[in-house]
Amino acid sequence: MSYFDDKQPLVADIFSRYPSTPQGKRSALMPLLREVQNAHGHVSDPHMAEIAALIGSTATEVRSVMSFYSTYSTVPTGKYHLQVCSTLMCSLAGADELWDELVEQLDVQPGELSPDKLFSVQKVECLGSCGTAPVVQLNDSGYYENVTRRKCHELIALMKGGITPRLDNPVPVTVNASGLQVTAAGETVGAGIGSLHQVGGSS
Ligand code: FES
């Protein structure tokens, strides 16, 4: 069974956010990718083909859009997907040495899972937190900042012990199951997805 076979209400909801034109259908690409990425930790070739068929595109085009965003992965990721910023400020602050340390300690290379299947690693471009370099992003959850060698060891030790260390800078705003934006502190902010529907419907 394909991933979206038993999720037709979800697919209909996603498509309802866009105009019912061929271009509008193709606009649903990102939320469909996000759905699979969240569920499986990566988007495989069969998933790309399925999404392409849904939006009237090709798997090649889906892959090419994915390749633009480091947030999507075509290979399985671990429970702890560590993304090390490798842009200039982080590099000057020791990110290259940090990366070497990380791949050696975890015995993992990009595109692989660590032997204990817990970790995967990836180099990414500037995470927009240059003042706290070097920066490591955990999954889509937030940042560990000023990551020294010692701090790296401590973070990894906790994760190997099944504890997710507290993030220095959690993703500030996420969208909850009700479509409302909430801060890391749990406070509701801004407009919900329902409001976006109303804006789209009135134009
Ligand atoms: S260079 Fe690493 S966060 Fe900007």
The CATH architecture of the largest domain can be named as 3-Layer(aba) Sandwich
Output the CATH homologous superfamily of the largest domain: Glutaredoxin
Number of E-state strands: 8
Provide the gyration radius in Å: 19 Å
Global geometry:
globular
Ligand types: FE2/S2 (inorganic) cluster
Helix fraction? 40-55%
Low-confidence stretches: 198-203
**CATH class annotation of the largest domain:** Alpha Beta
How confident is the prediction overall: mean pLDDT?
A: 89
User: What assembly state would you assign to the polypeptide chains in this entry?
Assistant: single chain
Q: Please, how many domains?
A: 3
Total of DSSP H or I helical runs spanning 4+ residues: 9
Question: Which key phrases capture this entry?
Answer:
alpha+beta; five-stranded mixed β-sheet; 203 residues; Arc Repressor Mutant, subunit A; 9 helices; 41% helix; 3 domains; Glutaredoxin; single chain; binds FE2/S2 (inorganic) cluster
Quick structural overview:
The protein contains nine helices and eight strands.
